[in-house]
């Protein structure tokens, strides 16, 4: 059988269970799937291919999986930083969302996010926001793989007035997109246990169970939330979700910063998944999720960037680097979270967190052809003693040369192939500019001068 | 007077004491200095210029100042990660240095480091290593600005047999390079208070005082060092240096992770400078320097990457991002170290730490023309509400389009203008390859599979 695409002359990081690395390897793709891969530098003796890509000694690995984003919030990137949480949220983010977020802006914000992610090596994202139909259309047009959850919340938010309407919208969105395309997977995103009532949470989870969807929720992000949940419900946020019957293998718990040993045991027992968002948790001063302990308990932990209002980018390479270093610091042990373990979190475990591990997250015959090529002919990637080390500790998203989702090239030679980048940038700038001018002027920074 | 170079259509981050930002600005350069700068987008009405650079709306700011590196250790980048400190140092780094480090390899390692730094926006570095003549020649050939200290240590190290020989070599190196060029500044680098005797330290400092040089030293990096110094000398590492009379305004204290309130007061009183290297300190699990407390005490703190064996790159943009986020986390306060404060650390305060604040670190008429142009026409830098936020929280070194040192363009359109990059990469690979093959095979990673 012929290949549609053959990539050769590559160091292949398969991210297989044994973390096989194939130096000087090739990979053959037919349709949307990987047909075969193996060692050997050249084309000789391989089936013919329509397109042959010479990796020139670069690293080919699975596309990265970003398990938590709010895609349209790219439009609020850097609007407000370095502020107390309440000021940031109530005086900047919420007013900006009321001004800026419409189905039209969600489309452009999502395209902007897809452009950023694709140019930084991410092939799949988990998202939760509002006007999710517009996000799904945009991600589908772009060609990125996405697990998208329409937001459920008891309060007014972009396009929804409260619990009833957001639950209805979530159900309609999910049914519209279920099995509609190969790359867009509907989901439900409950904002949090403190912005959704027990009734709302259980109805959202029921919707997920009925349709076989991933249930995403922010939980245990801060000590404040932990204390609040304890004071209202008498238990920790995780134990509260357990009591409501919300923890199972199709539940993705985002943040899990403030979890104790009992919480970890609960998550492990239910095989619920965790999304770790260290950059957001640091920037908002929330704390550090006990990832080594969660991994030791057998929990699947994926990596997330969170939205661009609290990071402020979608570069998972930087998140990998930070994750590896942060937990060494916290545990005062330089052997914690070695490079290979962090790559796993950003690929196969991220796929598992989103329920897609049979399709993506590693490079093997039969799997979806979601992959990236890292150009290593650069000073900061020279020399390379171990490709995993280069990927985690030295590469950034800007080193991604080529990116493919479901066998379709979205990036080649760092150019986006499916969209007009200038059009996206211009629309994003236009949306950001007038709507937020009043807030822009508000910025007061007591530390800016001294 | 005519300009040699005019850069226009730029958002200029001056890094002046009042942190002035000039939207739609221009900057005129003559010889090695900035002649004038101001608002106004076009060329009209400006003096003629030999070279006109259209910044196309990008950000122009002072080149970044990396206050601590070991340049030739780029050759050991990623040789060994995720290992206990003793194993890392004794089984990997020291043997590799014995095998790999020669004057010839120091030259290529330094060129590799300069290429990496220039392509990531760094115009000045502080360095401490061995065979420093070769490093100075290489940095000078490249055109980067560097404060270079020949290493002083009581034990055998590359090219030196111990205290006497390393002190002699340090003096000879310093005298050879004093006032020899505009961009290479000699210094002395004492490895640490636990690898140099009191006698060695004092003689090295005397050498610095005699010649007006910066005295660089690793100090208070770990709790282990703190305990060791207390057990031997009865005081903290900083108090020990004070007792020896080594703390003054021309002393650069590298790391300062394990310092207490009394140490901070001592550093402030003597106006000694601090180099903060958070990525290295995290990766080696050393801890976090109390930077907000040091800034509050009025201490000048610059940023450093440390060497590539413990980071593993020289990208100060990533260090800025991490610094801003890390101290918010440690202090559990999202207002700590706002973007502007971190940019100051990476520019003017870095310059001050190296004793060069009158020449570099901010953009003003009369200062050396050491500057960078950041290309902001990219998804992850769109939109921009505040340029300082974009620089710290979203940009990486790969966004640097153009870089100039002393009025001389070293990078334009991300191409290196003064060296042959392929030659450097090939030499670095050749040096790394045979010498370290035995060590490469040694890598054992217990966490790689599970």
Task: Describe the structure in your own words.
The structure is a homodimer of 450-residue chains. The first copy, chain A, is α/β, with parallel strands linked by helices. Chain A folds into two domains: 109 residues, Urease, subunit C, domain 1, CATH 2.30.40; 290 residues, TIM Barrel (Alpha-Beta Barrel). Chain A is 38% helix and 22% strand. Chain A has 16 helices and 17 strands. In chain A, the strands form two sheets. In chain A, strands 1, 2, 3, 4, 5, 14, 15, 16 and 17 form a nine-stranded mixed β-sheet that branches. The first copy, chain A, has an eight-stranded parallel β-sheet with strand order 6-7-8-9-10-11-12-13. The longest helix of chain A is centred in the N-terminal third of the chain and has 16 residues. Chain A is globular, with a radius of gyration of 21 Å.
Mean pLDDT of chain A: 94
Number of domains of chain A: 2
Query: Helix- and strand-based class of chain A?
Result: alpha/beta
Strand content of chain A: 15-25%
Please report the two chains with the greatest interface, counting residues with C-beta closer than 8 angstroms to the partner's C-beta. A-B, 87 and 86 residues
At the fold tier of CATH, the topology name of the largest domain in chain A is: TIM Barrel
The first-level CATH class of the largest domain in chain A is given as: Alpha Beta
List how many beta strands of chain A DSSP finds. Answer: 17
Cα-based radius of gyration of chain A, to the nearest Å: 21 Å
Oligomerization status of the protein chains: homodimer
The stretches of 5 or more residues of chain A where confidence is low (pLDDT under 50) are 441-450
Number of contiguous helices of chain A: 16
Helical content band of chain A: 25-40%
Could you describe the largest sheet of chain A, including whether it forms a barrel?
A: 9 strands, mixed
| Name of the CATH architecture of the largest domain in chain A | Alpha-Beta Barrel
End-to-end distance of chain A, in Å?
68 Å
**Global shape of chain A:** globular
Name of the CATH superfamily of the largest domain in chain A: Metal-dependent hydrolases
